[in-house]
């Protein structure tokens, strides 16, 4: 019976720097997530805020619910939108989907 331990030790891989490899792997994953998900979302939000800041009385808008209208009055958080002749509704600013 052969009880040579050196053969068994040579067959098993020795984990050197595995903690550093794991840290680098996690950092790469976070970097990929940041560049593919977070940055584009920030850019979209900046464009959306610019769009909302550019609203003025008379702007034609599309609401998130699919209603088209013309802005009649602007307050801090809400808009009054005329959706038909003589029909004015009040909506929050963040319900604006698009400005035409």
Structure description:
By secondary structure, this protein is α+β, with helices and mostly antiparallel strands. It has two domains: 15-53; 56-100, SH3 type barrels, CATH 2.30.30. The protein contains two helices and five strands. The protein has helices at 5-11, 18-53; strands at 60-63, 68-74, 78-84, 87-92, 96-99. A five-stranded antiparallel β-sheet has the order 4-3-2-1-5, with no helix packed on it. The longest helix is centred in the middle third of the chain and has 36 residues, at 18-53. It starts with a helix and ends with a strand. The mean pLDDT is 87.
For the structure shown, list the relevant keywords.
5-stranded antiparallel beta sheet; 2 domains; SH3 type barrels; 2 helices; alpha+beta; 100 residues
Q: How would a textbook summarize the main sheet? A: 5 strands, antiparallel
The shape is rod-shaped
Strand fraction equals 25-35%
User: Percentage of helical residues?
Assistant: 40-55%
Instruction: Please work out how many helical segments DSSP would assign.
Output: 2
Instruction: Report how far apart the termini are.
Output: 86 Å
What integer value in Å does the Rg equal? 29 Å
Helix and strand arrangement:
Layout (H helix, E strand, L loop, with lengths): L4 H7 L6 H36 L6 E4 L4 E7 L3 E7 L2 E6 L3 E4 L1
Antiparallel strand pairs: 1-2, 1-5, 2-3, 3-4
């Amino acid at each position: 019976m052969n009880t040579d331990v050196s053969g068994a030790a040579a067959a098993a891989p020795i984990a050197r720097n595995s903690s550093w490899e794991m840290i680098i792997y996690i950092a790469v994953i976070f970097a990929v997530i940041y560049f593919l998900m977070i940055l584009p979302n920030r850019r979209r939000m900046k464009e959306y805020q610019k769009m909302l800041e550019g609203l003025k009385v008379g702007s034609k808008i599309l609401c998130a619910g699919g209603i088209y209208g013309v802005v009649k009055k602007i307050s801090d958080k809400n808009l009054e939108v005329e959706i038909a002749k003589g029909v004015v509704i009040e909506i929050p600013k963040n319900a604006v989907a698009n400005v035409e």
